[in-house]
């Protein structure tokens, strides 16, 4: 066994500055006095003797100073050594204690691993989505994104997009900006033709984009200034890292080769760093210079001078030491000037109302909409940080409880050590070390959990966002270390406080009972756990119910068996007549495929496209119906059947309508009801756009949620295919069974029809709807996982407290049984105790839930945050779990043998 | 008074350690012991002696305790630790080797004188 430190320390007097000084003084005095005595004994006179002694000694003052300085240095060194010795001893002591109870230690470590792992996972997600800048955006504290607000009399619109001329003004006339870069929205472009065609996600950026972010390409170089220079720049491309890996197998000889993108061929000059994205975190396959906008005809007119095409987001790096307010004032002035010129050009001197313009600088961070608002996922994730913190709190409460019960079992030992003279501070420190040690071990296990927890979260719940690199970056590790430390102190605190309050005399007495206060502390922890569990369960329940409601929404159409096929005929150079002809032939060919029920075409695709056209009703002045304009669609006759819509009155479009009876329309119920309440709309006349001729209503179709689950059905007008519009839009294929099985056949059929056809995109129509469920899925899944974790942890906590309680009260139970109590009475005693604590917890939890409800109401779907069914089920679940957790201790209590129990003491 | 031999740095340490090798001593006794054992050839300045004692205490070669002196005064007694004893052996061996080497050189000079004579 190692030497116990402090044996020596116990005998060493505590050294203070004053005691040091006195010691040196005493030592010197002793020396001089002894010498003086000696000299006097040799026959010298006292005064002369003293003088001689001092002379012999040397400079007494200097000696004193020297010795004191030496002493101070030594005290410091001793203190550090003692501290390290004590720490090492405490660690050994803690390890020994924890090894002695492996089951308890394992339970504690697992509980903490769950709590800390959950937090590390959620922090990793939220850091990327909400808090931090996208990967590779170096020194983000100096980076700002520009947002532009346009104010109208009754509302205002915020957007991150501006025109190229505006970007130039920001770049060239704001002294506080070190660099100003711009990037476009994501464009899905085609690479190659025919069967070999693939879609690539392209993003157009200014040449200084990477320089502004402070990143460097992993291979080759980024765009040179002249390669993005108007009007045409150069046909060069920088590949995204993931795309380079997938398409080129990370081949480094790819530089210098060319690849087709859109209408041109581009020379590959570099590979972007892994995981580089814009602020929307969408993956990027190819980075193109802004000048590519010209050859791809993405922006109409002359892009370099077009003030009205707002297609660039602007990000800037502040000059170091620049004052942000000053920078904002400068850039706002520039923006006012640009917008004043634009408004003058637009109105050409008319007196019409001009909107007001203002500009904002905001920190760059991920997962934002174009108007700067957080995406729903980001908002849900922010909530999940709170949730994981709650799980950690529950875990801490539980571990503290377990440690408390352990400390109670060690009460006698602690009392003995106190009696032997260990200071309460030392004892508290020792228990603290134990807590921190547990937290560190639990935290390490938690990091392992976070590693796969993050992988799960990323892949399953947020698939669109580009996650590259390890989820465990320096920020996550740092925050985890902080969590571990706080956790360690929290769980060490309770036992440490208890230990320092131990009453020696009562603790040393054999069979002493636990104090009332101690039990109360532990009951409080159980109640808190139950309350927090209620909050989490309620969250999970509310999200699950929202998801259920959202899934149950009647869209008014049957989307599940439908495939959507879109083909970009325009960029392949088809004129509108050819496009229409192609669609007709495609519908014919696809409808002959086995497994296909119906094929239709529509100009606007549900959940994706909005198209409107002014509609007037002859004899009425207002150009809108009830203040709103209906949406408009051009559809083939089979459209309603293909999408599972029902004609309620009249009839749909027969094939004959395309040729002769062209001026007909089908409207939906809502429009019929709004425009002709109580009347039969069939045969009524409407005027579309600037046409003078009457379009006759021939049918009424049921209402559909054209924009998905979040929007009520709108008024709609359908006109038959062939009358208006061309080939853009989509083909709808209604299949028997799972539509995904026919995806490849449909794509091959379309591509075989035209060898020079660009990429045909075929996918289930449901896919367009999925993103609307994502935040609900995220909420339900994460709240669910966390709630189950919390429930497990809390029930283990309840069990351990009751089990311990029964063990402690064996004597009392024995007495009761000896006095005639039966098994059911004993069970009731134990159960009652557990259920009582949990019921108090439930009530508290409900109060918190009702109070917090309003905050998450906006994230729920068609569900009140006070939904009585959900809250009822939550309470019931918790009660059942409480009873289950209490049953084993209760059963054990009935096995108490009174004679043994009474003899034990 | 005869001119004292100047003590080299480090030499004082080994003398003090040697003085303490006989048992715990206070500073005054150490000084006296060095003086008398060297037949008053080596006189240590008391100030330097105490600095050496404290420095070696800091290094853990000696440890100190308060006790009563023979004349019934409170005195600080120093005593060798295990590390101090080791240090003494090492230093003493080094000194002996050094001294022997010096003697050898001086002896050789005598021999050469004899040879020429």
Structural overview:
The complex is a heterodimer of chains A (905) and B (117). Chain A is an alpha+beta fold. Chain A contains 25 helices and 23 strands. In chain A, strands 1, 2, 3, 4, 5, 6, 7, 8, 9, 10, 11 and 12 form a 12-stranded mixed beta sheet that branches. In chain A, helix 21 (766-808) runs parallel beside helix 24. Chain A is globular, with a radius of gyration of 39 Å. Chain A starts with 6 loop residues before the first helix and ends with a helix. Mean pLDDT of chain A is 82; it is low at 1-11. Chain B is an alpha+beta fold and 117 residues long. Chain B is 60% helix and 14% strand. Chain B has helices at residues 11-20, 27-37, 46-59, 82-116; strands at 25-26, 62-68, 74-80. The longest helix of chain B has 35 residues, at 82-116. Chain B is globular and about 55 Å long. Chain B starts with 10 loop residues before the first helix and ends with a helix.
Write the layout of secondary structure elements.
The complex is a heterodimer of chains A (905) and B (117).
Chain A: H1 7-11, H2 17-41, H3 46-57, H4 60-100, H5 102-131, E1 143-151, E2 156-159, E3 161-162, H6 164-173, E4 177-191, E5 198-205, H7 209-213, E6 219-220, E7 236-239, H8 241-248, E8 258-261, E9 264-271, E10 286-289, H9 292-295, E11 312-318, H10 324-347, E12 356-363, H11 376-409, H12 411-419, H13 424-461, H14 474-500, H15 504-508, H16 516-551, E13 562-567, H17 576-591, E14 596-602, E15 615-616, E16 631-635, H18 639-642, E17 647-650, E18 664-668, H19 669-675, E19 685-688, E20 695-701, E21 716-720, E22 730-735, H20 743-753, E23 760-764, H21 766-808, H22 810-818, H23 823-857, H24 868-894, H25 898-903
Parallel strand pairs in A: 5-10, 7-9, 16-21, 18-20
Antiparallel strand pairs in A: 1-2, 1-11, 1-12, 3-11, 4-5, 4-11, 6-9, 7-10, 8-9, 13-22, 13-23, 14-22, 15-19, 17-20, 18-21, 19-20
Helix pairs in contact in A: 2-3, 2-4, 4-13, 5-11, 5-13, 5-14, 6-10, 11-14, 11-16, 11-21, 13-14, 16-21, 16-23, 16-24, 21-24, 23-24
Chain B: H1 11-20, E1 25-26, H2 27-37, H3 46-59, E2 62-68, E3 74-80, H4 82-116
Antiparallel strand pairs in B: 1-3, 2-3
Helix pairs in contact in B: 1-2
């Amino acid at each position: 066994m190692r030497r116990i430190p402090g044996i020596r320390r116990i005998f060493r007097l505590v050294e203070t500055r004053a005691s040091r000084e006195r010691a040196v003084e005493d030592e010197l005095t002793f020396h001089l006095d002894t010498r003086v005595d000696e000299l006097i004994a040799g026959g010298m006179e006292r005064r002369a003797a003293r003088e001689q002694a001092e002379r012999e000694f040397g400079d007494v003052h200097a000696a004193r100073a020297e010795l004191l300085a030496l002493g101070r240095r030594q005290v410091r060194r001793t203190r550090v050594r003692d501290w390290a010795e004590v720490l090492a001893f405490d660690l050994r002591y803690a390890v020994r204690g924890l090894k002695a109870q492996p089951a308890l230690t394992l339970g504690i470590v697992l509980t903490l691993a769950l709590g800390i792992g959950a937090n590390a996972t959620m922090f990793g997600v939220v850091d990327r989505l909400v808090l931090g800048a996208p990967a590779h955006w170096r020194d983000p504290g100096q980076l700002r994104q520009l947002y532009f607000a346009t104010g109208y009399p009754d509302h205002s619109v915020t957007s991150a997009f501006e025109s190229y001329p505006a970007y130039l003004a920001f770049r060239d006339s704001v002294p506080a900006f070190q660099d100003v870069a711009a990037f476009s929205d994501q464009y899905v472009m085609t690479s190659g033709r025919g069967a070999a065609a693939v879609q690539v996600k392209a993003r157009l950026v200014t040449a200084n984009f990477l320089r502004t972010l402070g990143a460097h390409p992993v291979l080759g170089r980024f765009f040179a200034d002249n390669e993005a220079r108007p009007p045409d720049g150069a046909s060069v491309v920088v590949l995204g890292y993931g795309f380079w890996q997938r398409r080129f197998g990370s081949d480094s000889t790819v530089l210098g080769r060319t690849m087709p993108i859109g209408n041109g061929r581009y020379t590959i000059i570099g590979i972007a760093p892994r995981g580089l994205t814009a602020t929307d975190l969408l993956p990027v396959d190819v980075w193109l210079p802004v000048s590519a906008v010209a050859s791809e005809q993405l922006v109409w007119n002359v892009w370099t001078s077009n003030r009205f095409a707002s297609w660039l987001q602007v990000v800037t790096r502040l000059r170091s030491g620049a004052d942000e307010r000053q920078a904002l004032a400068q850039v706002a002035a520039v923006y006012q000037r640009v917008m004043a010129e634009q408004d003058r050009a637009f109105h050409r001197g008319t007196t019409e109302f001009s909107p007001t313009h203002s500009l904002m600088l905001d920190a760059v961070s991920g997962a934002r909409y174009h108007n700067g608002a957080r995406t729903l996922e980001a908002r849900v994730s922010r909530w999940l940080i709170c949730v994981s913190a709650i799980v950690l709190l529950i875990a801490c409460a539980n571990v503290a409880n377990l440690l408390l019960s352990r400390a109670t079992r060690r009460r006698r030992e602690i009392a003995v050590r106190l009696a032997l003279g260990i200071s309460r501070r030392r004892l508290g420190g020792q228990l603290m070390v134990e807590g921190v040690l547990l937290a560190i071990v639990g935290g390490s296990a938690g990091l392992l959990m976070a590693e796969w927890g993050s992988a799960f979260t990323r892949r399953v719940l947020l698939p669109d966002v580009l996650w590259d690199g390890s989820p465990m970056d320096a920020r996550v590790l740092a925050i985890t270390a902080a969590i571990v430390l706080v956790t360690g102190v929290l769980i060490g605190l309770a036992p440490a406080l208890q230990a320092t309050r131990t009453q020696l005399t009562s603790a040393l007495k054999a069979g002493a009972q636990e104090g009332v206060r101690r039990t109360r502390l532990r009951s409080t922890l159980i109640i808190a756990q139950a309350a927090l569990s209620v909050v989490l369960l309620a969250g999970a329940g509310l999200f699950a119910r929202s998801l259920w409601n959202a899934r149950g929404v009647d869209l008014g159409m049957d989307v599940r068996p439908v495939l959507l096929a879109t083909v970009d005929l325009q960029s392949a150079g088809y004129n509108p007549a050819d496009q229409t002809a192609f669609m007709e032939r495609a519908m014919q060919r696809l409808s002959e495929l086995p497994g296909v029920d119906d094929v239709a075409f529509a100009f606007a695709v549900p959940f994706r496209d909005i198209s409107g056209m002014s509609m007037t009703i002859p004899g009425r002045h207002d150009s809108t119906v009830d203040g709103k304009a209906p949406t408009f669609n051009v559809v083939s006759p089979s459209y309603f059947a293909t999408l599972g819509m029902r004609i309620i009155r009249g009839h749909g479009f027969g094939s004959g309508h395309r040729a002769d009876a062209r001026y007909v329309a089908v409207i939906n119920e809502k429009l019929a009801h709004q425009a002709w309440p109580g009347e039969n709309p069939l045969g009524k006349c409407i005027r579309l756009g600037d046409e003078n001729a009457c379009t006759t209503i021939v049918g009424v179709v049921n209402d559909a949620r054209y924009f998905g689950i979040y929007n009520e059905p709108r008024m709609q007008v359908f006109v038959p295919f062939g009358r208006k519009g061309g080939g853009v839009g989509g083909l709808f294929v209604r299949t028997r069974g799972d539509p995904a099985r026919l995806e490849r056949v449909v794509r091959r059929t379309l591509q075989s029809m035209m060898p020079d056809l660009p990429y045909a995109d075929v996918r289930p129509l449901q896919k367009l709807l999925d993103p609307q469920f994502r935040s609900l899925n995220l909420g339900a899944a994460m709240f669910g996982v966390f709630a189950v974790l919390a429930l497990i942890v809390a029930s283990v906590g309840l069990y351990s407290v009751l089990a311990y309680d029964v063990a402690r009260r064996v004597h009392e139970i024995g007495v009761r049984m000896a006095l005639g109590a039966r098994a059911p009475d004993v069970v009731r005693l134990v159960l009652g105790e557990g259920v009582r604590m949990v019921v108090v917890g439930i009530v508290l939890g409900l109060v918190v839930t009702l109070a917090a409800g309003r905050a998450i109401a906006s994230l729920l779907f068609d569900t009140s945050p006070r939904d009585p069914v959900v809250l009822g089920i939550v309470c019931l679940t918790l009660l059942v779990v409480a009873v289950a957790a209490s049953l084993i201790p209760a059963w054990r209590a009935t096995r108490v043998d009174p004679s043994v129990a009474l003899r034990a003491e | 008074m005869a001119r004292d031999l100047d003590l080299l740095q480090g030499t004082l340490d080994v003398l003090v350690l040697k003085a303490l090798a006989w048992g715990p001593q206070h500073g005054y006794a150490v000084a006296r012991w060095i003086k008398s054992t060297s037949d008053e050839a080596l006189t240590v300045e008391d100030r330097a002696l105490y600095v050496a004692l404290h420095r070696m205490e800091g290094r853990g070669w000696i440890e100190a305790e308060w006790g009563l002196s023979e004349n019934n005064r409170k005195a600080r007694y120093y005593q060798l630790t295990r590390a101090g004893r080791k240090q003494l052996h090492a230093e003493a061996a080094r000194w002996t080797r050094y001294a022997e080497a010096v003697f050898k050189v001086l002896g050789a000079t005598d021999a050469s004188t004899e040879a020429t004579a």
